[in-house]
Write a structure and sequence with these properties.
Low-confidence stretches: 182-186, 213-222
Largest sheet: 3 strands, antiparallel
Number of strands: 3
Radius of gyration: 17 Å
Number of helices: 8
Strand content: 5-15%
CATH architecture: Up-down Bundle
Mean pLDDT: 89
CATH class: Mainly Alpha
CATH superfamily: Rhomboid-like
């Protein structure tokens, strides 16, 4: 399932979401310029659970690195669809706190679940999962315009809880399935980072009060 947009209107500018997307693209372009030194860069700034004690900063820096165009574009699409409504509701400062806190929580859960892994983990997925968990609490009455594909491709509106809970269940059971894979050198998806970020977002959203939008948007979506 690919989310295309939310049925919830945006009533204010969302500079943090736009800024985060821009920053992630800039960092990715920098990664592309590194050539053969890229693996060293990723190992230094990505999360390596077995080395987290000597690289504690990686819980922050890792969420701005990506492993390829598909990884980057899918993450930024999810951030765009779900993040703007949360920033609109919470305000930019609180949204940024939620985003970073969700990403850190996701990173720590991943380290806890894979303490001896030497594989660098990168990506904004954990932080965005936190935004999605917050979205489930704040906007459970909305619909998500979604693209599906199996044999055919079709587009339909799905209630946000169905979309988000389905996504979470897939991450959770995929994570359970990965527990039996005792492999500390191969790559993969950090399923429990997604699970941890999502649950953290659901919990953290209760710490923030809604704010009134500073100004009306200069555009509308149809």
């Amino acid at each position: 399932m690919i989310p295309l947009r939310s049925s919830e209107r945006i009533h204010s500018a969302t500079p943090v979401v736009i800024g985060l997307i821009g920053l992630n693209f800039l960092v990715f372009f920098y990664q592309l310029s590194l050539g053969y030194t890229l693996p060293y860069f990723v190992s230094t700034w990505g999360i390596v659970p077995d080395m987290i004690a000597s690289h504690p900063y990686s819980v922050l820096t890792s969420m701005f690195l990506h492993g390829g165009w598909l990884h980057l574009l899918s993450n930024m699409l999810f951030l765009w669809v779900f993040g703007r409504n949360i920033e609109d509701r919470l305000g930019s400062r609180n949204f940024l706190i939620l985003y970073i806190a969700g990403g850190v929580a996701a990173a720590l859960i991943h380290v806890f679940a894979n303490p001896y892994s030497r594989v660098p983990t990168i990506g904004a997925s954990g932080a965005i999962a936190g935004v999605m968990g917050a979205y489930l609490i704040k906007f459970w009455k909305t619909d998500i315009d979604t693209l599906f594909w199996l044999i055919f491709v079709w587009r339909m509106s799905v209630p946000a809880p169905y979309f988000l809970i389905y996504w979470f269940v897939v991450q959770f059971f995929s994570g359970l399935g990965s527990i039996s894979e005792v492999d500390y050198t191969g790559g993969g998806i950090a399923w429990f980072a997604h699970v941890g970020g999502f649950l953290a977002g659901m919990a953290l959203i209760h710490l923030f009060k809604d704010v009134r939008p500073a100004f009306r948007a200069w555009y509308e979506e149809d």
